[in-house]
Amino acid sequence: MLLPSLSFAGAPVHGAKAAAMGTAFVAIADDPSAITHNPAGLTQLTGTNIYGGATFVIPFTMYTSPSDKSEDTDFQIFFPPHIYISSDFGTKDFRFAVGIFSPFGIGGRKWDEQGLTRFSSTENLIATVSINPTIAYHVLPSLSVGVGLNYMLSRTQAKKMIDQSALGAGDGELILKGIGDGWGYNLGILFTPDKRLSVGFAYRSSIKVTHHGDIELKNIAPALQPVFGGSDFETDMDTPSTFPEIISLGIAYRPTENLTLGIDAEKGGWSSFDRADIDLENEIPEAGFSDISTRLDWHTAWIIKIGADYKVNEKLSLRGGYAYVETPVPEHTLDASNPDSDQHNFCVGFGYKMKKLFIDVFYISAFYKDRTVKNSILSGKYENFSHYFGFSIGKKF
């Protein structure tokens, strides 16, 4: 049995300016993507603002078996979008906003159905989208707070082959599909004791989602077909997941009017992924096809981010950043569906203001640490690399 694993950007990419700065944005949060990074930052905006764009994610993984055979994932591009709208509605201290974005990224890996990893995974996908209405309030000249309600929709799909050689048959196939939703909240605080220094805190709650869908078995071995009622079998299923809480703390310093420096520390509560449970509507106990609970044992993971924004002139800003991303996936449960490892993300980008619009562009190279594991799922060496590039376009009314 299997469950698809999360595949997400090492640091969340919800806006091009923040992404170019390594997403060290909690204490800066000065564009509408503050909804995701620190909603208190919305008080820095006046009038009505719209900000939207997309990220293009190109992942690559190579697996090498203990016998030194190797294979690569298929070429894929994923492009999670984002859009934010904020307004003060003519008030002095309140800001109202809504954002639509992918909180945990979108994508997965696709392997050869006749390849080395086929009994671990041939395909996995998880896609999330959140709708996040938010309100922020300027409590004091130096202090702002923000809070939002988060509705998240999640879709999951996974495939793998089943070894039926002991039954004298070729590979079977297992396909899982599900969709679910859940509710959470986020909040933030921004403290600016003077124009050079700001401190930010943000919290995004965990969200419980139960994916409802089905599991399908194909090409069932002839020896098992009498108990399954044929060569194919399908049944409804439920599988619960708890997406993690995220806690962030950041400091920004502005040594000159043209330069902003930021540093963030982010804690992800990935220990919520301790088990993967599947509840089947129709079980076939005599064939070993019944409800299952699988250990995942993911653990809390940290992301450390630094970033800089340099204003060259009134129109052009240059940006750069770095993020160290700790993996939450332990060796004993790592497999081909999510061969994650610690990452070093190097980020660059720029912003350009035009007459009525402004555009932000970024690129991230994600270098993963090579990881060799020995476990009961799929031992071997995993090598990963990912490209992220994207844009956001904004306008103030």
**Which class of secondary structure composition applies to the elements?**
mainly beta
Largest sheet: 14 strands, antiparallel, barrel
Number of beta strands? 21
Rg from C-alpha positions? 23 Å
Strand line-up across the major sheet? 1-3-4-6-7-8-9-12-13-16-17-18-19-21
How widely separated are the two ends? 53 Å
* Number of separate structural domains: 1
The low-confidence runs, each spanning 5 or more residues with pLDDT under 50, are 1-11
| Mass-distribution shape | elongated
The named CATH superfamily? Outer membrane protein transport protein (OMPP1/FadL/TodX)
Q: How many DSSP helices?
A: 3
**Proper CATH architecture:** Beta Barrel
* Mean residue pLDDT: 93
CATH topology label: Porin
Highest CATH level, the class: Mainly Beta
Report what the structure shows.
The protein is mainly beta. A hairpin with a 5-residue loop joins strand 1 (48-64) and strand 2. The model is unreliable at 1-11 (pLDDT under 50). It has a 14-stranded antiparallel β-barrel with strand order 1-3-4-6-7-8-9-12-13-16-17-18-19-21. It has a single domain, classed as Porin, CATH 2.40.160.60. The radius of gyration is 23 Å and the shape is elongated. 3% of the residues lie in helices and 57% in strands. It has helices spanning 16-20, 34-37, 225-228; strands at 48-64, 70-72, 81-87, 94-101, 106-110, 123-140, 143-162, 172-194, 197-204, 207-218, 233-243, 246-256, 259-268, 275-280, 292-295, 301-311, 316-325, 343-353, 357-368, 371-373, 380-396.
